[in-house]
Amino acid sequence: MLIVMKPQATEEEIAAVVGKIESVGATAHPSRGSQVTLIGAIGDSDTEVRVAALELDGQPGVSKVVPILEPYKLASLSARHGERSTFEIDGRRIGGDHFALIAGPCTVESRDQLLDAARAVLDGGATMLRGGAYKPRTSPYSFQGLGVEGLRLLAEAKAQTGLPIVTELMDARDLEPVVEIADVIQIGARNMQNYGLLAELGRAGRPVLLKRGLASTIEELVMAAEYILKEGNPHVLLCERGIRTFESSYRFTLDLTAVPVLKTMTHLPIVVDPSHAAGRRDLVEPLSLAAAAAGADGIIVEVHPQPEEAICDGPQALRASEFAAYARKVEQVAQVAGKLPFLEAASTA
Ligand code: PEP
Ligand code: MN
């Protein structure tokens, strides 16, 4: 159930509605939009019946009460009355008119490698830096990431460049050190349905970039986001990174249809990862331009100073020396799709 307050509703009236919702065992999720305050009243179907019986549309300050029909109550576009979420992440905006270009190596390998990559993506116009300290590898015998030392290097890269950090968390036991340095916590495709971990992130106080599982439907992705939102964290970015299909000419099938479809379902910003879908450098630019054209709110892309020497995902990493030209093209297409230019904003941030 969504309670739409009147534009002139007072704080007392908002608090009174929240109190009534909570009095019948539902959770109240207020969100202050540009025009009005919306209050989601969320609970199981019995609780929803009790909320309906409150007849909140007769309460002072309430404009109307509308049911949220989708199973993803807080993520749905109707939960925000059609208004899209935009988030500010350490001075950079994403969502609405704002495009984010998140770039950096697959994994943090060494101080030199990370700082070289960070400077290159900063100079090229990236708005955030990516890099994994904990890596989900197919083989347990492959490099698993530098762990805490990797996090320390990411903090150093942020201190040098000012770029907000996007880094993956795989295990709730590492939450504390990751929260300390991450501006956005990435949940990888393989953990999309790790519901205990998602609930932890709902309480962690950091924005989350949630990647679509290798074989998950679009609705399963949005339902996974709901686990984070339900715990009180509204800052979730959804990420399409390719799904497994019968096609074997490349690594995964980048489902770009998911971008406009997700926009009809949810108010959350949508990010596309062309690198892991392609598995090959030559496909990364065309897929990025297509993602921007499809209306993505951001791209997360792998960039390495020396891809031939990369420990992980070298064949798909853009060369740092080629990143600036790539970023200019992405910006042009994003602008055609209605986004504001981001390169200048990035360099003056
Ligand atoms: C990554 O971003 O490096 C990664 C492992 O991604 P995914 O979870 O999408 O495979
Ligand atoms: Mn990778």
Task: Report on the architecture of this protein.
The protein is α/β, with parallel strands linked by helices. The protein folds into two domains: 2-67, 2-Layer Sandwich (Alpha-Beta Plaits), CATH 3.30.70.1140; 87-348, TIM Barrel (Alpha-Beta Barrel). Helices cover 36% and strands 18% of the residues. It contains twelve helices and 15 strands. It has helices at residues 11-23, 45-53, 111-124, 148-161, 175-181, 195-202, 218-230, 258-265, 274-278, 281-293, 323-336, 343-348; strands spanning 2-5, 27-32, 37-42, 62-66, 87-89, 92-94, 100-104, 128-130, 165-168, 184-187, 208-211, 236-240, 270-272, 298-304, 318-319. The strands form three sheets. The chain has an eight-stranded parallel beta barrel, surrounded by six helices. α10 runs parallel beside α11 (323-336). It starts with a strand and ends with a helix. The relative contact order is 0.13. The model has no long low-confidence stretch (mean pLDDT 96). It binds phosphoenolpyruvate and manganese (II) ion. The site of phosphoenolpyruvate has 10 residues, from loops. Phosphoenolpyruvate binds next to loops.
